[in-house]
Amino acid sequence: MQVHVFDNAQQVGKAAAALFAAQITRKPDSVLGLATGSSPLGCYQQLIEWYQAGLLDFSQCVSYNLDEYVGISHTHPESYHQFMQDNLFHAINMKETHVPDGNAQDLWAEAAAYDAAIEKAGGIDIQLLGIGRNGHIGFNEPADRFVYGTQIVSLTKSTIEANRRFFDSEDQVPRKAISLGIGGIMHAKAVVLIAMGEDKAQAIRDTVKGDVTPAVQASILRFHPNATILVDKAAASLL
Ligand code: GLP
Cys-Cys link to 124, which of 35, 188, 193, 230 (CB 3.0-4.6 A)? Predict the structure, then answer.
């Protein structure tokens, strides 16, 4: 695991975008693993700028997002489908985009089909990750085990509270989500985890320096052969 500390959040976003740009330049038909949340916004903005400047072409790339809430419509402003449209997909020329369907009739069948589709696409070349305050990646919440495949999860109180800011009231925050499992994330050929702000400092410390434990799901990345952690000074303050 490599850790790089930057002065500010903007630099973290640009550094993550640079790793994605290098991947796409090397392999134009890359399979990109994408994430939502506020952390990836600077990265997506930079990718859009490079695309608009003619430096990047996504026309052969396919993307698979990490997760989606269960039970909110794809056009709900806080759905991850809509987030990806608004913050990246509308502005670039990605060949194909995929986000798990949190409204599928049979969610576990959707989960299995999602894993199968990623495998059929050749596996994820580079996976972008944010991190929850409790060390979750995707929506793999602290647990007593690591779950391998895409799963349906109940969100923890800490995650519901953290996501409350995006909804009108806490009641409206979805309680469940569908998320790529830890096996799916660990299978990505490269992983780039980004974190900014003091809020993430403890989770970053636990991930980089604590035990490898399902209580801090991101800690498993210490066993990944090509994991890069990009953080600003605030998120690195407990390292
Ligand atoms: C959600 C997402 C995660 C994300 C986390 C942190 O829980 N499912 O993938 O990493 O939020 O979000 P933020 O970047 O907004 O702090």
Answer: 188
Find out whether the beta carbon of 159 lies less than 6 Å from any atom of ligand 1.
Answer: yes
197: left (phi over 0), alpha (psi -120 to 50) or beta: left
Give the pair of three-digit tokens for residue 159. 């995650």
Cα 35 from Cα 22, distance rounded (Å):
18
Q: In this predicted model, what pLDDT tens digit does every residue of 63-87 receive, in sequence order?
A: 999 999 999 999 999 999 999 999 9
pTM of structure: 0.96
Question: Does CATH number 3.40.50.1360 belong to domain 2-232?
Answer: yes
Residue 34's nearest CA partner among 235, 237, 231, 194 is 194
pLDDT band at 211 (very low <50, low <70, confident <90, very high): very high
- Residue with CA nearest ligand 1 atom 1: 37
Q: Tell whether ligand 1 has an atom less than 6 A from the beta carbon of residue 58.
A: no
- Ligand 1 centroid – CA 188 distance (Å): 19
With contact defined as beta carbons under 8 Å apart, do 217 and 137 qualify? Answer: yes
Confidence of residue 158 (pLDDT cuts 50, 70, 90): confident
pLDDT tier, 163 (very low <50, low <70, confident <90, very high otherwise): confident
| Ligand 1 centroid to residue 168 C-alpha, Å | 18
